[in-house]
Every structure is written in structure tokens, then in C-alpha cells.
Amino acid sequence: MTVMERLARSVVVPVVVLEKAEDAVPTAKALLAGGVDTMEITFRTACAPEAIRAVAENCPEVLVGAGTVINLEQCKLAVSMGANEEDAKDVFGIEAEATDIYGGSLNHAGYKSVAKQLADKFGLEMVAITLRESHSAFDNGWSAMLYNVEKDEYCFSKKYNLHIIDRVGGGDSFGGGLIYSLLSGKDTQAAVEFAVAASALKHSIEGDYNMVTVSKVEKLAGGDGSGRIQR
């Protein structure tokens, strides 16, 4: 079902103004419990971008949008907080072809095209896209792609087959791992492998924080791709 079809079937789309980003996920879950699976978080408060990201990462059943967007920078920020291939298509007309995240089918060539178009459109140096294959609520395939514009490199990580304990913080741990690995001087392939491994480990830990060491992430990232976690 497309974004427009979901909006068309919605009886109501709540407009939500949040003062604290940590209230976003509980609000989304409360709406879901009441049978409402769409929400608009407005840019009237400074926490809006983080609130949108929190809902996009932790409540995939909820269609979250941004409201009171009055300039291009806010538009770009809103998409970056919860971007997937459908957002890129609906907002910018950039589409990953032959891809069905709900059917568990990902077309690498389609994502390379999306990354290239985003980089060209906004003058980006790097584009990272996480690739989640939803087999069930608790069993996902997890990988990512990192596009290095200067080197014209499209690097895909190994895929981990996850049984999810807690997905809260999965996106943050990927972003943190990617920033750390790039600042540490890792090349494009090693950077995306480290980021995905860090995020894969977080999916096995209950709570908000990724309580693992760099050495444990390196061990998983440098393994055989089986996804076996050693503690």
C-alpha cells in the first residue's frame, strides 16, 4: 500500500506537537493502540527531527510525516530523519526499482540508483542506506549500503539474519558506528561493515544503549557473516 493509499483510508491524521523527542514513541504506540496508524509531527518545536526519526525507527507500523515544513532545508532534514526508498520516491521522485521491503526482496542496483540521485541532487559526499528485510516482526535481514561519491564506490555490507530482542536504538547505533568508523580512517567497505555490525549487536540488547565495545563490533564485522554473537 502506498503512502497516498494509506492517507486516503485514514479516518484522521493526528497533528502532534512535541516538546521532548522521548515522547514520540510512546505517543505513536498510544495512537496505534487506539487504531490510528498515521501521525504528523510538526516542525514547530526543535525536537521535531529527532522525534520523527524515533518513530520511523521504532514504530514501523506508523506512517509518520512532517508538518509545518516551510523551506527546503526542513524538507531535507525531515526525510533524513526517517528516510527509506518510499520517502525518496514520494518527496523527491527518486525511486528504488524492483524493491519490496515487506516481501524481503531488495534490489541492490535500485539502491545504487537512489544513492546516486540523492548525492547529485543535494551535493552529498556520502550516502548511507540501511536495508531491512522484514520477514516477521522479530526476524529481519539487516544490511546497509554506503556510497562514497569521491571514489564512486558503492559498498554493500554482509547481511545479518537477526532475531530481534529490541530494535530501539538500532538506527542510532548504525549512525554512531558509521561516524566512528569514518573518523577512524576506515575505508568505505570497512566503515559500512562496522556500522552494520554495531547495529546488529544492538538489536540483541534490551534498552536504549548499545552496550558493546569496539573490539566486539570489530570481531563481528570481521567474521564469516554468520552473525554469531560472542560475549
Describe this structure in words.
- Strands 4, 5, 6 and 7 form a four-stranded antiparallel β-sheet that branches.
- α3 (48-58) links the parallel β2 and β3.
- The chain has two domains: 1-82, TIM Barrel; 97-231, UDP-N-acetylmuramoyl-L-alanine:D-glutamate ligase, CATH 3.40.1190.20.
- The protein is 42% helix and 17% strand.
- It has 231 residues and is α/β, with parallel strands linked by helices.
- It has helices spanning 3-9, 24-33, 48-58, 72-81, 85-92, 108-122, 170-183, 188-202, 214-221; strands spanning 15-16, 38-42, 63-67, 126-134, 139-148, 153-156, 160-163.
- The protein is built from nine helices and seven strands, in the order αβαβαβαααββββααα.
- α8 (188-202) packs across α9.
Please provide a brief summary of the model.
By secondary structure, the protein is α/β, with parallel strands linked by helices. 42% of the residues lie in helices and 17% in strands. It has helices at residues 3-9, 24-33, 48-58, 72-81, 85-92, 108-122, 170-183, 188-202, 214-221, and strands at 15-16, 38-42, 63-67, 126-134, 139-148, 153-156, 160-163.
How are the elements arranged and paired?
Blueprint: H1 3-9, E1 15-16, H2 24-33, E2 38-42, H3 48-58, E3 63-67, H4 72-81, H5 85-92, H6 108-122, E4 126-134, E5 139-148, E6 153-156, E7 160-163, H7 170-183, H8 188-202, H9 214-221
Parallel strand pairs: 1-2, 2-3
Antiparallel strand pairs: 4-5, 5-6, 5-7
Helix pairs in contact: 3-4, 7-8, 8-9
**CATH architecture assignment of the largest domain:** 3-Layer(aba) Sandwich
CATH topology of the largest domain: UDP-N-acetylmuramoyl-L-alanine:D-glutamate ligase
Helix and strand pattern = HEHEHEHHHEEEEHHH
CATH homologous superfamily (4th level) name of the largest domain: Ribokinase
Mean pLDDT: 83
- Output the CATH class name of the largest domain: Alpha Beta
Count of all domains: 2
Strand content: 15-25%
Shape: globular
Taking the sheet with the most strands, its summary is: 4 strands, antiparallel
Instruction: Quote the distance from N terminus to C terminus.
Output: 41 Å
Please tally the β strands and state the result: 7
Can you count the helices?
9
* Percent in helix: 40-55%
Structural class based on helices, strands and sheet pairing: alpha/beta
Low-confidence stretches: none
Based on CA atoms alone, the radius of gyration comes out at 17 Å
